[in-house]
TrEMBL record:
Alphabetical list of Pfam families matching this protein: PG_binding_1 (PF01471), SLT_2 (PF13406)
The protein, known as: Lytic transglycosylase
Domain called Transglycosylase SLT: residue spans: 43-334
Annotated GO MF terms: peptidoglycan lytic transglycosylase activity
Peptidoglycan binding-like domain ranges (all copies): 354-409
Phylogenetic lineage: Bacteria, Pseudomonadati, Pseudomonadota, Gammaproteobacteria, Alteromonadales
PANTHER family: LYTIC MUREIN TRANSGLYCOSYLASE, MEMBRANE-BOUND LYTIC MUREIN TRANSGLYCOSYLASE B
NCBIfam families the record matches: MltB_2
GO biological process: peptidoglycan catabolic process
């Protein structure tokens, strides 16, 4: 039946008798059932193909029989994969929710609990205890929340979805092999909607290549063993290139009139050059004159804190490719080790609606500051466009979408529209 006919049946129910109403609903319900049946048929044929591939790659028939007949398509996983956040979180909101007194004190308690192991790992891999604890705290609140989604179902759902099928097919098959290798139970393999697992939220490929037996029981179990999780995190970070005896970076104080065009990863310089430019530690003491390469980060614009990032900062970003995350790991690690945290005051910035950023990007494009297709994401191209706009308008060129930039571009924020309605 044509869509127009269905729409007419449904819209006519308010003037027609109940029998027609029931008939129109039945037609709609039948269409939904057919659609659902088609989706289930696709998932079944896809998982059957995955079972064949798993067998070809050495998975036992026992494991295949244990897993594949019981896989369930997770509609919620697809919803989350497609969803876009309504708000764009700025650094103050992100940082204040993650680097907390609770995480600091819990990290210190976990240090006392695992002190011997942590120092053993530090000696072997070069990663100090407080960094391992910071990763653990940010990933799962020290194991208190490791996710609740069935990992194999989630990965199979994503593997059978065309958007990122190749990547998730590989991760799914690795997870199946991991279950066989470590004698894990399917029902115990829970994690994030995208398949990250255990205390340290490793994807299956990271679990397979970098997870190690830290408690000596002959099994690598990142869900149940804190020792396995901490040992695996140390091994992973060392494999990513962690440099022994170096810190992540530090908070700094920038000199008056600092040229913010010199911030960012592209502007890496030896510490001696930053020292010559007047960059100091946050307490005002000299930064140092070594030849270690570093770069300046201003995550909340010129009104917020500034940081200088060393090579290990980029290692942290290989775990999670976010400057906000890397700063949070570094500062939380410092606090667990006894430091007081950042000295600068976090500016009071709104959590921008995605529509605000899209409007900003559209304005910049209209004025000739090309930032690409407006998408509501504050990426490198958008920051560069903001910086170029600021330069041309004699503003501080920090590349940050502060309220003064929004006002100058006549971007009416969604929060202000709501307050006027």
């Amino acid at each position: 039946m044509r869509l127009a006919s269905l729409q007419f049946s449904f819209l006519s129910t308010f003037s027609l008798k109940g029998g027609v109403f029931r008939t129109s609903l039945a037609l709609l319900f039948t269409g939904a059932v057919i659609s659902s049946a088609s989706a289930n048929e696709h998932f079944s044929s896809c998982t059957a193909a995955l079972a064949d591939r798993a067998k070809q790659e050495g998975v036992s028939q026992q494991i295949i029989d244990e897993i594949f007949p019981h896989l369930v398509h997770q509609d919620r996983v697809i919803e989350l994969d497609r969803s876009q956040p309504e708000f764009v979180q700025t650094f103050p909101g992100y940082f204040s929710k993650r680097v907390t007194d609770w995480r600091t004190e819990k990290g210190k308690a976990m240090y006392a609990k695992h002190e011997k192991l942590l120092h053993k790992l530090s000696d072997k891999y070069g990663v100090p205890p407080h960094y391992l604890l910071a990763f653990w705290g940010l990933e799962t609140n020290f194991g208190s929340y490791k996710g609740k989604m069935p990992v194999l179902d989630s990965l199979a759902t994503l593997a059978c979805d065309k958007r990122r099928s190749k990547y998730f097919t590989q991760e799914f098959l690795v997870a199946v092999k991991l279950m066989q290798r470590e004698k894990l139970k399917k029902d115990n393999m829970v994690g994030s909607w995208a398949g990250a697992m255990g205390h340290t939220q490793f994807m299956p490929s990271a679990y397979t290549h970098y997870a190690i037996d830290g408690d000596g029981d002959g099994q690598v179990n990142l869900w149940e063993s804190e020792e396995d999780a901490l040992s695996s995190a140390a091994n992973f970070l060392a494999s990513l290139g962690w440099e022994r005896s170096f810190r992540w970076g530090r908070e700094v104080k920038l000199p008056e009139g600092f040229n913010y065009q010199e911030s960012g990863y592209k502007n890496r310089k030896p510490l001696s050059e930053w020292h010559e430019q007047g960059v100091k530690k946050a307490d005002g003491s000299p930064l140092g004159e070594g030849e270690t390469t570093a770069y300046v980060i201003v995550p909340a614009g010129h009104n917020g804190p500034a940081f200088i990032a060393y090579k290990n900062f980029r290692v942290i970003m290989r775990w999670n490719n976010s400057e906000f995350y890397a700063i949070a790991v570094g500062v939380l690690a410092d606090r667990i080790a006894g430091a007081s945290g950042i000295k600068a005051t976090l500016p009071d910035l709104p959590a921008y609606n995605r529509k605000d950023i899209i409007a900003l990007q559209s304005k910049l494009n209209d004025l000739g500051f090309d930032v690409g297709k407006p998408d509501g994401i504050i990426g490198p191209a958008t920051r560069e466009g903001i910086r170029n706009y600021q330069i041309s308008n004699n503003m501080i060129a920090d590349g940050f979408p502060g309220l003064e930039v929004m006002a100058a571009l006549n971007v009416e924020l969604e929060r202000d529209k709501a307050s006027q309605s």
